[in-house]
Amino acid sequence: MKQEYFVVVLAHSLRGRLRRIHIPHQAVYAILALALLGCFSMFGIVASYARMAWKVANYNALKREADSLRSRYQNLQKVVSQTNQQLATLQLYAKEVSVAYGIREKLSGPTGIASEGKLTPTFAESLADYDFLKRTDVMALDNNRSHSFFSTTSQPSLWPVDGRLIGAFGMRSDPFNGEGEFHKGVDLHAPMGAPVHATADGVVVYADTQSGGYGKLIVVQHGGGIETYYAHLSRFYVHVGQEVRRGDMIGAVGATGRVTAPHLHYEVRIGGGPVNPYRYLANAAVFQPVKKEPF
């Protein structure tokens, strides 16, 4: 049985000679199959490239949107931080005004308007107000706002440790999970065991290991709603209820709590709300022990 084939006739344009080429059917089918396979391959390559280009475009768009949202979030956090500081200051002023003028937050006694409402404070409230006024030296009010003036040594006016600033107040990236968090104080680098000093006169109201990230923590109350926090300590040199003076050594730098290296976490709070300690540290001196002259 003869093999079937196609005949291709080629004619020379000048000499007029004819030439016949025999092409088997199998060769033609193979060429067509290869051509079809090539078309499918080319279509797949083009489709893959188009899909990749679409994904890259979507990724770039999402990245730009994420950057925009991150920037807006940081701006909002700054606004919230400033608002918290202003709120803490207003709460302090409100407390001073209410204590100075005997303004009560609410009437005691019956709620009816015809009934007699006692404006006198309770015994416990009187003691709290007396303690607040005892810690406040001078308070003056003007037409626009009230200003409280305390003795120089009752205002935080000293660096708590001889070190350098490594962590600022406000929003920052958490060193453990990389997420954004609000840092309520500042971090001061110092070697392990370096002495920590009270930044103002006050009374120790907390000296214990805190269950959260503070580790060993000391809290000193200075009056007027002002408190200072000293965290991540390695040891305590004071106890609760002890009166301390500006410059007294109250503890030692450590690495307790949620830390990656030894340092001191220092906070200043007014009315229970954290404020930026840098405004107190900017013009504060570093504690220097007095050198005694030899006899």
Quick overview of this protein structure:
The protein is an alpha+beta fold and 295 residues long. The chain has helices at 25-101, 123-135, 278-281; strands at 5-11, 18-24, 138-141, 146-149, 158-159, 164-167, 170-173, 180-183, 186-189, 195-197, 202-210, 215-223, 226-236, 243-244, 249-253, 264-270, 273-275, 285-286. Helix content is 32%, strand content 31%.
Please, could you describe this protein's structure?
The protein is α+β, with helices and mostly antiparallel strands. Among the domains are: 96-152, no CATH class; 154-286, Glucose Permease (Domain IIA), CATH 2.70.70.10. It contains 3 helices and 18 strands. Strands 6, 9, 10, 11, 12, 13, 14, 15, 16 and 17 form a 10-stranded antiparallel β-sheet that branches. Strands 1-2 form a two-stranded antiparallel sheet. Strands 3-4 form a two-stranded antiparallel ribbon. Strand 3 (138-141) and strand 4 form a beta hairpin. The N and C termini lie far apart (132 Å). The relative contact order is 0.12.
Features:
rod-shaped, single chain, 295 residues, alpha+beta, Glucose Permease (Domain IIA), two-stranded antiparallel ribbon, 18 strands, ten-stranded antiparallel β-sheet
Number of helices: 3
Which architecture of the domain at 154-286 would the CATH scheme give at its second level? Distorted Sandwich
Q: Could you give a short account of the major beta sheet?
A: 10 strands, antiparallel
Mean pLDDT: 77
- Beta-strand residue fraction: 25-35%
Uncertain regions: pLDDT < 50 for 5+ in a row?
Answer: 113-119, 136-150, 290-295
Radius of gyration using CA atoms only: 39 Å
CATH superfamily of the domain at 154-286: Glucose Permease (Domain IIA)
- The level-1 CATH class of the domain at 154-286: Mainly Beta
Distance from first to last alpha carbon:
132 Å
CATH fold-level assignment of the domain at 154-286: Glucose Permease (Domain IIA)
Classification by helices and strands = alpha+beta
Measured as a percent range, the helix fraction is 25-40%
The rough form would be described as rod-shaped
| N-to-C series of helices and strands | EEHHEEEEEEEEEEEEEEEHE
Q: What's the total number of strands? A: 18
